[in-house]
Amino acid sequence: MAAVGALVQLLLLLPAVLEAAAPGGTQRDTLREELLLSPLPAGDVAATFQFRTRWDADLQRGAVSHYRLFPKALGRLVAALGVRELHLALTQGFWRTQAWGQPPLQAPAGAELWVWFQPTVTDVDKAWKELSNILSGIFCASLNFIDSTNTVTPTASFKPLGLANGTDHHLLRYAVLPREVVCTENLTPWKKLLPCGSKAGLAVLLKAERLFHSSYHSQAVHIRPICRDASCLAVSWELRQTLTVVFDTFSSGQGKKDWSLFRMFSRTLTDACPLASQSKVYVDISPKNKEKDLLEVTPPPTSIHEAIVQGDKRTYAVYDLLSPSLFNTSRSLNVQLKWKRPQDSSELPTPVLHAQRYVSGYGLQTGEISTLIYNTHPYRAFPVILLETVPWYLRLYVHTLTIITKGKENKPSYIHYQPAQDRRRPHLLEMLIQLPANSVTKITIQFERALLKWTEYTPDPNHGFYVGSSVLSALVPSVIAMKDVDVEQSPLFTSLFPSSDGSSYFVRLYTEPLLVNLPTPDFSMPYNVICLTCTVVAVCYGSFYNLLTRTFHVEEPSRGGLAKRLANIIRQFRGVPPL
Amino acid sequence: ITDVLTAVALYLAIQDFNKVVFKKQKLLIELDKYAPDVAELIQTPMEMHYIPLKVALFYLLNPYTVMSCVAKSTCAINNTVIAFFVLATIKGSAFLSAVFLALATYQSLYPLTLFAPALLYLLQRQFIPIKLKSKSFWLYTMQYAALYLCSLVVIICLSFFLLNSWDFIPSVYGFILSVPDLTPNIGLFWYFFAEMFEHFSLFFVCVFQINVFFYTIPLAIKLKEHPVFFMFVQIAIISIFKSYPTVGDIALYMAFLPVWSHLYRFLRNIFILSCVLIVCSLLFPVLWHLWIYAGSANSNFYYAITLTFNIGQILLVSDYFYAFLRREYYLTHGLHLTRQDGTEAMLVLK
């Protein structure tokens, strides 16, 4: 009887035990990873890794204690500081839009951090400071240099990419550190946040010695809330980790433009990440100028996928790492691409929107920043929002701001300017400019350089000071109508930016960072300067003291000092008349 | 326009001042205060006739004035207000003088120190002797101080109502006193604070600001009989030691120099000082160009010229001061001094 009772108890307890052992329960998180390899017009290869973890839990409200795929460091950060959206990018190099085409996701050189906070946060600046310090610790980057002198609050540029209730721009903060260098030290903690680490799946390709031997390297973290399903009654959190690297196949491939995974990354893929629900490799094999059979991809892909990306119809060869047929013949997957005929590279397709920025002028007193924006669409005009952040020590003269399109003045329809305060906040200039079809718009503004205190210079002051990239956000009209994408079904690289309608796609471009020299004092002179200036003040003080405290007297003939008396004694001995 | 107004104001002021000086001289001669053989030191109406015109011309034709006019600097407006203040003081109108002084102090803080010479002059004009115990002295002082403070308060409150906030006080006066902007100018401060150790910056800011203000009391004690000369020295000290000096300030005190052209024979270093000033003024743009545009010189070059120029100015003012005091001594003790044994004597400061 007792045994039966014990058995019944065990049976009753078993479901509870089983339920506790089942991972997640009502909280489900999924991981999708993908790699997009696209040959660029100039012969380089761009590889974009995306790791997307989607977690159906509400980080803000429920006290979440069990983290599985979503990294605990980031989850606790979002919950504790009331972060609604977080975008951090660390980039080395510059995406050459004119040579490489429109980037899928561009980031400015250096470190860029922009965050939307929840409306419940009362002191946004305090939360921002804490957030940048914590992120600096997580990613081993010097993000703690982000303070009020390089943080701005844009009003129009950085709209939320996830779910948003209202958009009060006082909850947005944007900062960029153009001087930041990206290296292995930043890659390692980034890889640690991945569920499989760098041990399985696509992340095995991420080896530092090959990744940093490239023309462009950008790693980013994006956290945002998304709808859980079509009815959008509940919120899920999405974490995307993206890494974009551009390899120059010409120089590493001895003059041939053929490439393979092994040659680029010195590794091949062996299996998919066991925690991933989807793991795919896409290779862009779109025919250019309608020429088929220009290239050959080995091994043969598991499927072919066609999509309209950035206004262009593209064909992709898909390798599904989770399908059992892929690893039948060999244990590793080494995707190779061979060009059958030398490509006619004289015709580079120009992107619809691209921009350049440069600084001009001579001498160390004044200068001029010029931005050129090109709209190469043959018949459509569209507006673009330009955001410029200039540090306070380059004093902008807003009355010299000119915008010229096709020789005529172009007035922006929205302009927001926040002047700088010395040592407190930078200049912020945001403009909405209409770009006519097939035109070049030139925006110029003059500035004056300030002399800083000697402790405010960097250790190499003659290298110059960096001005962060300006940001161009635009909805570019596309030639081909795009269908609405379902985030769960389509590849990741098509669903990063939400598209409102099928006729245009969102593009965010960054211009070059600028390097500006400031007049420097002589750094070896502090003690000398103090002595000399105090000497001048003392001269004044001394002469005035003399004139104020002494009065004129008739001089009494003195009996001579000691020297005169000695001389007189010697003369007496000699018999010569005294002085 | 403001330059012309300044010149006109200075002209009228010096004309009046000359009349006062002449009257005073006559009085002292009649009172037999002067030694018998100082006839050649007394100012004659002939030479004094042209002094106001010389003053006005000195101001208008000064290259410094022309330069600050071309640069469209607000220094010209500052100079106009101070010139009108001088005119009002010499004419004897306490109310107008207080109003103009309040305006000048409102613009930049330093003309506050001109309160003392103005007070001394007005007391002299009312024939109130300056004794600390006399009631009429304190009464008049209080009246003048009250007028000045009231007009200052009125002007500040007007600004407050224009802006609806008190933010302008730290922005304007805090800026003058704490010297945050280090753009190179012809003064001493910019390089000093650019190379200052952070630890000491507050200390040295305070020291430099006090340096401008603290010459007032000793000069008042020494020069209480000659308030107009006191005003000149005070204006010169302000324009040398203020936190952001400009050449327009220098032009203002140089305009007063013809008033004391009779001191010429007692000036000791005038030739070398004028050479120093002219050469430094010419070298300023050259070395600036070399530092900023050509890149072949250092900031030290421009800084050195700043130092030399300021030393030149300081020595010029102290030279005039010396000459003035020496002439006063000669006036009361006679021009040819003899010692007890009849030989020529030397004058020294002891």
Topology:
The complex is a heterodimer of chains A (579) and B (350).
Chain A: H1 2-21, E1 29-39, E2 44-55, H2 72-81, E3 83-92, H3 97-100, E4 110-117, H4 124-139, E5 151-152, E6 172-177, H5 184-192, H6 208-211, E7 216-227, E8 235-248, H7 249-252, E9 259-260, H8 261-265, E10 278-284, E11 295-298, E12 303-309, E13 312-320, E14 336-339, E15 353-360, E16 366-375, E17 382-390, E18 394-405, E19 408-409, E20 414-418, E21 427-435, E22 439-449, E23 465-467, E24 471-477, E25 504-510, E26 514-516, H9 526-549, E27 552-554, H10 562-574
Chain B: H1 2-30, H2 45-49, H3 51-61, H4 63-70, H5 75-91, H6 94-107, H7 115-125, H8 135-163, H9 168-178, H10 189-194, H11 201-213, H12 216-222, H13 227-241, H14 247-254, H15 270-294, H16 299-333, E1 347-349
Helix pairs in contact in B: 1-3, 1-5, 4-14, 5-6, 6-8, 7-13, 13-14, 13-16, 15-16
Assess the beta-strand content of chain A as a share of residues: 25-35%
Total separate domains of chain B: 1
Cα-to-Cα separation, first versus last residue of chain A? 142 Å
The overall pLDDT of chain A, averaged over residues, is 83
Compute the gyration radius of chain B: what is it?
A: 22 Å
Low-confidence stretches of chain A: 14-25
Class based on secondary structure composition and strand pairing of chain B: mainly alpha
Total helices of chain B: the number is 16
Question: What is the mean pLDDT of chain B?
Answer: 81
Work out the largest interface and the residue count of each chain: A-B, 41 and 51 residues
Principal-axes shape call of chain A: elongated
Organism (chain A): Trogon melanurus
GO biological process, one term (chain A): attachment of GPI anchor to protein
Keywords (chain A): Signal
GO cellular component, one term (chain A): GPI-anchor transamidase complex
